[in-house]
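[audit] Reproducing an earlier prediction to check determinism. Same input, same settings, fresh worker. If the tokens differ from the archived copy the diff job will pick it up downstream; this log only records the rerun itself.
[audit] input (394 residues):
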Amino acid sequence: MPELDERLQTVYNHRLDTITPSQIRSFSKEIQDIPGLISLNVGEPGFNTPEHVKEAAIQSIANNQSHYSPQNGWLELREAISSYLQRRYDLNYDPETEITVTDGATEALSSSFLATLNPGDEVLIPMPGYPAYTSLVELAGGVPVGMDTSAHQFKLTPEQLTETLAKHPQAKELVLNYPTNPTGVSYSQAELAELAAVVKAHGLLVIDDEIYSELVYDGEHVSFAKLLPANTILINGLSKSHAMTGYRLGYVAGPAAIVKNVNKVHGYLVTSPSNPAQYAAIEALNNGMDDPIPMRKAYRERRDLMTTTLQQLGFGIVSPEGAFYIFAKIPAQFSENSREFALRLAKEAKVGVTPGSAFGPAGEGYLRLSYAADLDQIKQALAQITTFIKQTED
């Protein structure tokens, strides 16, 4: 095993000193070997990719579609994305110049931050939030500014955004994610319009992550890009809507001038997206508009079951409007922090969840539970949590 030359110990990107590994994955790894553990801690759809979508990927391989695609993805896919966004969310993007296909939504985020941030630029991030936002901003040289939304049902309000901008008048960007990981809350058109007015007045760029847009249970999803397209980089993909997390297929849509720069960074990071994934995505977008419907119905049933049971056990819950997570406040009788409580739950109740602290300081005191798991597993997990809670009360 080679040992690094001592003279090279400091040869690395020093921004990594401020970045810790994902607590979601590290905690999952820590508890994964507990015998009999039921996992409710990973954001992984509890369905397989639809058969017709899988077949399109297989057929692309059989047809020897194995060469580099254009850097921004096959035009046929970009046209499918453009058509889908128009039909589904009334958005209009030119597939030639305003869409880039990426290796998942995370790469779309990485390329967007690297293309738009200069050292020291501040980026406003509602918290609790997906931890990758903070880390990717830091890797790009930006400065994340967290906004604790827990006092407002986990929603960013125009008043809070205005107050934060008064303290950080040089802020360049706002990250908006909804339905939200980890809380599952979403925004109405009226709420988005109020935020859009503040964004427009201050000339912010919005990094708009709508990866869970097809998993909305209450009302219709409205894209922020519909309200303020000139200020928005839209991030989306097929990981959640079509259970294609392993395909790594996402996309960026926005004004041509900014997508051009995102595509430039994207090209140096990955060259081009995977061909089988692209042909699968073409099939999903052109012929799989209804594929998310049964998934959405099943998730809603699981959400309702989990919400009702946990509330009866004393967990505080803001009912999720989308995605497949519940962000539950730990019952008052427990004094442990979220990591300690989650570890105890894993060892004693044999149920794996994610500590709220993994989503920033604003998440302390909470747990994230995924209801993307199989319904029978969820029922068993809830039974085991019920037994655990009742035993502590005796």
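[audit] rerun output stored. Observation attached for the diff report: The chain has 13 helices and 13 strands.
[audit] end
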